[in-house]
Amino acid sequence: MNVLPVVTRELRAEARHAFTYWIRVAGAGIGTLAAASFAFTNGLRPDQGEMLFSALHFKLQLAIWTLVPLLTADCLSRERREGTLGLLFLTPLKALDVVVAKSLAHGLRATTLVLAVLPVIALPLLMGGVSWHQGASAILLDLSGVSLALAAGIVASSFSTSWVRSLIVTACLTLIFLIGFTNTLGFVFTLSTHGFRFAIDEGESFKVGLNLLGNISPYYSYQYLMAGAPVPGGSLGIKLVATTSTTFTLSLAVLFLSGLTAALVTKRNWQQRPPNPLLEWLRVKFTRPVIARDVLRGWMRHSLERNPIGWLERRTWSGRTVIWGWFAVMISVYSLILTDARYLTHNFSGIHLFMGWTLLASMAMNASMSFRRERETRVLELLLVSPLKENQIIHGRVRGLWGQFLPSIGLLLAGWTYLCTALNKFPDNVGAMFTMLVAFLAVPIIGLYFSLVCRNFLTALVWTILVGLMLPTFPQGMFHLIAIIFRGAVIIDFGWLDYLFHPVVFQTSLAALLLWRLRHRLVHRRFATETN
Prior knowledge:
mainly alpha, 26 helices, globular
């Protein structure tokens, strides 16, 4: 078979990437942290094996639907961008052979994520309370998620050459597949337990699917559907296995059709062709400024003169869309909050924290790909030999990233402060607001450092999230655990020490350290390239 040498080539190429090993560490780490969090919260009693199993499986599902699409988002587009796809077609290989080889190689990488969590999942199995129906259904659900996430990345990477565009399409397809998978899972289970009429009339397939993904418990889902009705005999476990088997079969069918689609698109678009006239017309029609063009031109000229490095972040329409797109999202959310009193009383802090963390994730993504663009286009070398100093390059890029999110961050903090003052909730939220403000200032610096030292964008993004958002909370969590253990044995005032281990202190220290390291690497021209 012609495809076997390509599979071998792909496996050898992926084995050289450090991220192939780190994804296993990420899988085992996610499972270990989830188990430790459950143990600290609920304990590890013998009757809680099913609860721990459900919690671990739900975290694994989140990891699958988040990481696996990123693994395959650039598999075909990178070959086309680097010009190696045409070399493959000079051999007897066909487009389908290339797609199959890519799917097998990246599918094996994704499977290692699941295998790395198995030692942790063995803990609830040893505790007891987990039936074989739940174990078999969990395996089928995990494989279904891997298949659909793999299909989303394969299809998206076949349509575009740009990594960012492929990533956006992958995210959209992953969301569509996830919603469809959840609805299908709930519909098939409802159909098997209550019949077709009930499944159509109630229209709650998505909620039932979420219950199954989050609990892997047919009895819980049955009681949810029947509102506390008595659970019948052991037939529900068999129906759960049949449901997950059906969804797994459908997932394999979607993966097969996605592979055929990617092969057809790759066969048609592997050569560099002139831009599509219709797409060019749509791009010009919807991206060219038509209102206040003189104002925009003057503002861009002012930005170029004041901060030429930051101007690179907003010179394109996509960069400006980030600024005003997030601002429009914030206005829409606050319009919803101010028109519905339920959000002001029940979900007030949760909504603001969710918006803040979403903004931080977007900032981490933008910062992680910042210097990567300059390294790919060789603009970074030109900047380093220009009259600009290293400090000017760093400060200009950091100010540019801050400026992209300044309207959204300003609106979030202003609205948060105003509503806290109006509802007398300011003392309860001032700490969260200050922590969020420090994170807004620190995350771009941390992301810039990893965008310089990491060759792969995904590796830079993962390190930015781990070091910039998760690592600062670890010392305080460990301090609280030690304080709980030794509070009765040692007479120590732990109050003032809590401020020393606050996430703000560690996040600020990490940002300062990485800022110094970033300047040191630029001065000595030590940064990742596409060949090292």
